[in-house]
Amino acid sequence: MNTILENRTWRYATKRFDRTKKISEEEMELLLEATRLSASSYGLQPYHIFIITDTEIREQLKPVSWGQSQVTDASHLIVFAHQTDFGGELVDDFIKNTAETRNIPNENLKGYSDFAKSKLVDLPQQTKEEWTAKQVYLALGNLMQAAAELKIDTCPMEGFEAEAYDTILGLNGKNLTTSVVVPIGYRSTDDATQHLPKVRKSKEELFTYI
């Protein structure tokens, strides 16, 4: 089997992590860089990522994560938070970064800047937040697949109280709110879930060629 498929078959939503096993600093840097390189709409990356190793904070987060042990047992806890609102500054910051990275004048990017702003800035606030939340999942997918390549386990979680996370992590008033949580580390040998066959729709049910 191709390693691409092998790694995706090996991966599962880990229910029990081995608390004694920690991800190396080198591999964490690889995971974070893979996540940083994720695609996003217009390239804007309207989110922030928190890497939580502090045991006390994780103990505070566990009760507001429906008591799920992954939050405290995994090597690291990754929290994705998306922006709740934005204006033209979101595009301006990207244009400035692009000009500096590619060593081109800002004015050369005015057309792209104007186009992006025309599509985004005047959207209703709720629509903006829905859009920024969607961008998080592109980065989440990259993190999970990079982890699978390194044989590092993940468990994407939406089962938590976002408002409580925002309070514990000090996000209130920072134009950020928690989107999704990902404990990462190494599966426990006691996690029976790892031995279950992967359940997905059949090719015939899922794909349509036109």
UniProtKB/TrEMBL annotation:
Its cofactor is FMN. It comes from the Bacteria. The keyword Metal-binding does not apply. Residues 10-186 form the Nitroreductase domain. Keywords: Flavoprotein, FMN, NADP, Oxidoreductase. It comes from Maribacter chungangensis. Pfam families: Nitroreductase. This is NAD(P)H-dependent oxidoreductase. Belongs to the nitroreductase family.
